[in-house]
## 1
Amino acid sequence: MLVGSADIPLNHPVIRVGSAEIPDDVLALQGRALVAGARHLHIAARAQVGLVRVRLWNGASPVEGTVIFDGSLRLDGGVVCAGDVLGISSFKYGFDVPGNQRMLVSVDDPGSASRVDVVIDPGMQEVSLTACRNHALPLFRVVDSSSLDSTDELGLILSAHNIPLRRLAAAVKLVSLVAGKDDAARRSVMMEFRVRMIGEWLRWISPILTEGETSSLSSFILERLQGEAPVDVDSFAIEISSEVLRRAAGGNS
């Protein structure tokens, strides 16, 4: 699952990932995409031209980019840190398991990364997420697909802001499909919870949305989902999603 994300400005073209402790020395990349030590990875990234996005995953991650590291780091404090080597900008995530930790790292452009994905305890089983026909989503790596419940899957669908129509339509389809599987006593509560997840994602991809506008869009989605069961759930989800994105962009003004 996605557990952290940061857009980091770089003056020096290196991202450091690993233990929160500052290393005794900085290993020179010397033209390589990555140099690995016992406690730290140093990753070649673009600098002074744009932000570098670092995402931290636990157990599940998208099958994207080029894998440049698959191994273990020693994280004595049970904390993984990602940031620039000058110590100006970084973020940390604690998982309370000190010692050697398996990690997988992938980047969009080895040697000049603008996107870095760091995965703790990576799974290698590739799965396809729920999606509408002709609107496929990226594959994900998971530890065990049988343990991926509907709410976890919804979180993965909404874990990025690219291909918004595909992601939103998949989310609406998933909520529609699983509603009938929920316990009757909790069905309404679970649907409202999942639609709130969609609403928060909408605020992420549309920063201009106010809380009231987001609530209105969520209510629209919920009303449609609580209506008569659709004959064609894919067309139904795409129709709802297209209207929601139109309104989110200001098309309802």
## 2
Amino acid sequence: MKPISRAVRAAVAAGRTAASGPVHPYHPAEYEIHDPGEVGELLAAWPQDCGPGGSDDCTCSGHDGRVTLYEAGGQSVRAVDLSRAKPLARLLAPAAAEGIPARHRARWARAAPPRLREYAAAMARAEEPGHPGVPAALVFSWLGAPRARGTDAASVLAVEAPMRLLAAEPTDELAWAVRETDRGGLDGAVRFFASEAFTTRHPKRRRVPDTARDLLLRHARSHRPADLPVLERRLLRAPGDRVRRS
């Protein structure tokens, strides 16, 4: 049996019940914990005797979620069902203000661009945010920002928050923003235009001027090839490159 002190990372699989309390609307089904302090909290709350005979790998029929610890080499150290570890369940409760998932969401909100932080903070708290009134080009950059190592408990928000803003914009505004955004923003733009938030629009609202369409296809071809077939099929040509700014 490997000592849990060797653990440097934890993988959390969310359960299918709400036994640990309310579930945050943007809580992921699976996420990881890498912060050494947070891993230390998990180790401190880890049950000393889990299941009959003090089994090293606790399994049961509960559906409250599961935590698996990993050492630096990627090998599993220990795993436990949260129904057998109430202190861990409280620490990992999706909507608990002092829980680890709430901290991940708060960190993500603080890292948002200044003009989007209030909006991000409201979504992190599961509140209805007001529209921040920022250019779509900035939102593309936010969506396309490089992700931190692993996938934390804010991973769903990192996609849903910018997608929600972009989905509310008319296609002409989005097409112009493709021209104005940066390289990282093009990655976010490709991700948005290949998503259901755009591809389920009425065909008339999927017509994109050639300049923006070519930028999206070129970036997808070089950096997001898996999205290319969707873009080629769903991005329709506008009658002319008619998007203008005075």
## 3
Amino acid sequence: MQLSIFSIQEPANCSKPLDGGSFMAAAQFVMALNFAHEFELLSLSAINNRPGVAKKGGLVFVRNGKLKMHPGIYDHLALISISSICAGSIYNHGLDKMASEIINLPYSEGFLSLTGAEEDYMAFKRLCSPISRFFLLHTKKVQWSAILSVFRFLMMDGIWDVVIFVADKLRHSDTDILACTQLLESMKKQEWYVDFNQSLHDFHASRYPLSKVGLAAELPETA
């Protein structure tokens, strides 16, 4: 038995622009590589963030439904979900601007760009709920811990360049949906792949294992 975490009803149809939707989907894939041992990554398509268009797009992956869900797994899924919104925010405001504004979060919620990723945001909030219950933390603290963590990951040296690489692959693909195995093969041929793997390891080690102290340490009492 396999559990479908995300699904696409039909292929995302876009005119192959290198737009925010490409970066949003690419960020979900790059974030999911932190947890590739937990999930089978299947396919990726640009998130269609044009007004009035219902086709979602994004990352499709599965996890064995017989495996136990625990706070770490919920956190993995929450980070993947919110990464599209964080990437969209960086795309809209610029990496340097978001790097300077991150110190103002969670007070400046206006910097989060939800356009085209409303479903991801709702999924993110649902996924944070069991984490907050487990650690007896206010849900907002758990949510902002995840959001800040994703922004910091995307701002790690070289990570945004990898997101750009994946987004560009989406743009030049002959089809609207790109197989994750195909993406990985092309990434492994790049000279930055070894350093990228080390960055994934460093990020994972900085956040896990989850703890109540770690989740709440840098957040204001009002968050």
## 4
Amino acid sequence: MDTYEDPATWGPEPVRPRWSLALRFVATLLFFPLLCAFWLAVAAVLFVVGLFADGIAAVSESFGRGYVRFMDDVLGGIARLGSWCVTWPELRHEGDTAYYRARVDKAVGNWTKQASAPREPKKARPPVECEIPRRVYRGVGGRYVAEVALAQGWELRPTDVRKEVRLWWSAASHPQDASVTDTARDS
């Protein structure tokens, strides 16, 4: 885990002042509905423009990819505007390491359950990569996420622990998957 970043950044975030969180929570209550409405309006405009751009995309494949990238950047940028928002659980549990440990355990456990599920025919493969956002592990640090994930069979991916911890399911190349592809290749 120390391969990717400075080990000091893998620790828990400092506890934020209660008054600051309370102000941000009130601002969140006022700002978040406006942000959602703005996001929906921009998404609708991009969808309508996309209907007309579809004609151009039929001729130029690079235009279609560029437009999709543009939409992703615009909508993702609007969503990032809300990164300073504070939720009710964050307000209530700031500094409570037991709460954050439980959140990390639950998040990694859910991803492990999904990734270790057997592959069903004609369905998408289980996820082999995941990101645990900082909001989940803020009170215990990325090091705790890494310890829990490594114990459950995950491997770390290059990550910016100030934003998220990226994981890869190490058992993604199941032996039964290899035998299925070998059988299909022999046929």
